[in-house]
Amino acid sequence: MYEILDAPVPTSGKCYNIRGIYIGCFLGSPLLAGYFMAHNYRLLGRPALRGRTWLYALLSTVVLLSIPMILPADIRIPNFLITLTTAIGVRAFAEHRQGPLLRAHVLEGGTCYSNWRALGIGLAVTAFFVGVLTLVNVYNTPSPGFEF
């Protein structure tokens, strides 16, 4: 179905392995996982697949952010389950789309980034989102005694 091994796989540079993509999605967002996958496609000589990867990442992020708005208020789903389900889905998607390509890269002598790097980037993205949401909350909360 996907002809991703029709050309030699470059071994220069480092890529993100499947676990790193999973960690990035779990801690950061599907957009971060999309960044990791797009980086892999660029590094491994498949630049045509980068745009489609960004599209999938953007669409999955929009769907993920719209789930709480679509569900009725009386349905309570822990946020952790939504995040975990998304990360597992992204891991399966990454394994399907890049698994053979990444295995060929490693078998031919290529290297991958440490999962600690994906963890650090994921935590940085999480800190950024928390900071932005905190600022939005602070500036949207009226001060006591202030009327609109």
Care to give the gist of this entry?
By secondary structure, the chain is mainly α. It contains five helices and two strands.
Instruction: Count the DSSP helices.
Output: 5
Helix content: 55-70%
Biggest sheet: strands side by side, in what order? 1-2
Over all CA atoms, what is the radius of gyration?
19 Å
Main sheet summary: 2 strands, parallel
Categorize the overall geometry.
elongated
What's the order of the H and E elements?
Answer: EHHHHEH
Descriptive overview:
With 148 residues, the protein is mainly alpha-helical. Helices cover 68% and strands 3% of the residues. It contains five helices and two strands; from the N terminus they run βααααβα. Strands 1-2 form a two-stranded parallel sheet. The longest helix is centred in the middle third of the chain and has 29 residues, at 79-107. The chain is elongated and about 65 Å long. The model has no long low-confidence stretch (mean pLDDT 89).
Question: Helix and strand layout, with pairings?
Answer:
Layout: E1 14-15, H1 18-27, H2 30-43, H3 50-70, H4 79-107, E2 111-112, H5 115-140
Parallel strand pairs: 1-2
Helix pairs in contact: 1-2, 1-4, 1-5, 2-3, 2-4
Provide keyphrases for this structure:
elongated, 68% helix, two-stranded parallel sheet, mainly alpha, 148 residues
